[in-house]
Sequence to fold (136 residues):
Amino acid sequence: MDLQKSTKGIMLSAINNFSKEFEVETTKTQLMIKASDENCTPKYQLLLNNKVVRDVTFNEILNLKIDFLGREIIATPFIASSLRKLRNEHECGWEEINVLIYKEKQEQDFPNMYFFKGSKPIKPITMDYIFGDIDK
Fold:
């Protein structure tokens, strides 16, 4: 299983599904990954027009009731590691870590990701950044 390709597909599907649910263009729907504690356990939020609508579960992002393939169990350590790496690189508290996932264009077939320290935009994030430690 190509974890990066699978993750991109999951992110795009989530944006598409939430956009349909709220009847908005995909460029109006975003997901946010935040740290929920000092270990940087990921927490997820749904945003419309860059405003938080609600917290969402990983299964809601997958659009599933039950994740029989255990994708959350597989992805969570990589996401948490990336959040800790961002915290250390940018010397910020865990509560300041925000990664926005979005599409710039309707027809786009990949998600954009951007790191914010609090509400201040810092830098784009790549899949390699998230999954870069997979071979280590």
Helices lie at 3-22, 58-62, 71-89, 127-131.
